[in-house]
Design brief:
The chain is an alpha+beta fold. The chain has helices at residues 3-53, 117-137; strands at residues 61-67, 73-79, 82-89, 92-100. It has three domains: 1-53; 57-107; 108-139, no CATH class. Keywords: Bacterial flagellum, Cell membrane, Cell projection, Cilium, Flagellum, Membrane, Transmembrane, Transmembrane helix.
Length: 139
């Protein structure tokens, strides 16, 4: 074979290798998309199965908590009409006491744990602003 013929063959093979590389890349991308789709579908299925299996009465509800140390807390949780007093800290949860839940709802604290810092701060500002006005009006 002459040099020009062998060069043409090499150019033809190089183009074919590029096409083969692109086909492999496309197959790899398609396989990755399929795996991601399977993961999303499985997570949705598990969420639906776990959510439907539990009744509303079976979910624990936080009644109250207080900090007793830097990393330790005492927590009251209501589960199926029973209050559990739990000690939480150091990666452990210990049951301290168990008692039946009262019939009447517990009084709500001034600041619930659901309130974020911004809501508590705004409430404190409104409270302080109200006190400041009364002080100025007095002689």
């Amino acid at each position: 074979m002459s040099e020009s013929a062998s060069g043409a063959v090499a150019d033809g093979l190089g183009g074919g290798e590029a096409l083969i590389g692109m086909a492999t890349l496309g197959k790899t991308a398609a396989a990755l998309a399929l795996v991601l789709a399977i993961i999303v579908a499985c997570s949705l299925l598990l969420r639906r199965l776990n959510g439907g299996g539990r009744g509303q009465g079976q979910r624990p509800r936080l009644v109250g908590s207080t900090s007793i140390g830097q990393r330790e807390r005492v927590v009251i949780v209501e589960v199926e009409g029973t209050w559990l007093v739990l000690g939480v800290g150091g990666g452990q949860v210990n049951k301290l006491h168990e008692l039946p839940a009262p019939e009447s709802p517990a009084t709500a604290p001034a600041f619930s744990e659901d309130d974020g810092f911004a809501a508590r701060f705004a409430k404190a500002l409104r409270h302080n602003a109200g006190l400041g006005r009364h002080d100025r009006d007095r002689p």
